[in-house]
Amino acid sequence: MVLVGKANWTKQSNKGLDSLRIQRTIDFHHQTRLPSVVESQRQGVPVMNWFGENWQRVLFAIIGFVFLLFSIKYAINDKIAESSGTFAISFLSFLYSNISRFKKFKGLGFEAELWEDKQKEAAELIDRLKKIVSIFTTQTVLNSVTKNRWGGPADWKSNWKLYDDLVDQHKVLGHKIDFSDLKKQVDDYFLFDLCMHNSSIRKRITAARSTARKMIEDEFGDPVSDQVGHVKRHAQLREIIEKFDDPFKVSTRANLAREMLQWAEKAKTAAKEHFGINIEFDRSEMEKLEKLSKLYENRPVEVTEELIEMSKLGNDE
User: Fold this and answer.
1) How far is CA 309 from CA 17, 42, 258, 304, in A?
2) Between 277 and which of 45, 69, 76, 271 could a Cys-Cys bridge form, CB atoms 3.0 to 4.6 Å apart?
3) Looking at residue 245, what is its pLDDT?
4) Residue 312: its pLDDT value, please?
5) 179, 208, 232 — which closes off a domain?
6) Neighbours of 211 (CB within 10 A)
7) 29: alpha, beta or left, given left = phi > 0 and alpha = psi -120 to 50?
8) Could you tell me the residue range of the domain that residue 213 belongs to?
9) Does residue 230 or residue 48 have the better pLDDT?
10) Which of these three, 124, 147, 179, is where a domain ends?
11) In the chain, what's the furthest Cα-to-Cα distance?
């Protein structure tokens, strides 16, 4: 009995030692493999989790960037319609790529309820997007207004349609952007064209000056018989001002129509008083300038079909 008990105890001890060796082996393998598992979790899993949560933002950001490049390309090539369309898609893509910043989103009017911790960041983002849109719209309209100006009358019907379409689209999207500066710049070009197109004022003043100069030559002869009188008469001739300096600059800071009327009146008075020459200006042109003067005084300009038709006249200057 003693021997049997001792044998059983020996077997149990051997089993205990075997179990201990197996456990130590398992612990050793676990300790040697654990760092690589932890490292894998630290590097790969968070990246995959972030991409899984933000893949829509990445996709829309890429789409927005691609369409922005196409928009710039079209703008450089004067393809205004294509440039405007691709920029709109680019803008919406950038907007949607950041839509996760919003708690509630009611539409494209930016009237959204923001997460408290994102309010400042989202407000700055919206301001930047508005500035980009404003700059793009301004450059698109001004590019249309200023290109090919000296090849003939500007196509003001198309120019105003482009302006109205872009501004209306911003209103539809809920963009509260002040385009008053842009309207003022476009009005400057528009009123300038209306004043200068088909103007015969300078032509009639030039004709009067030529007549006055011929009178001076006949009066003093060649060689000049009276130097003092000759100088005085030429001073009187210079009072008939032939050239109107930088009319576009005047249009941007003052009433160009009123300035042109005063220019014509001064030349007419000088020609009549000094040389007895009566300059007859076109009555319809004088009436047109009177109407345009009132538009200058009551800006911004309310564009009408009558003004559009008036702008189609050729430029005689």
Assistant:
1) 108, 71, 21, 9
2) 271
3) 85
4) 78
5) 179
6) 15
7) alpha
8) 196-311
9) 230
10) 179
11) 166
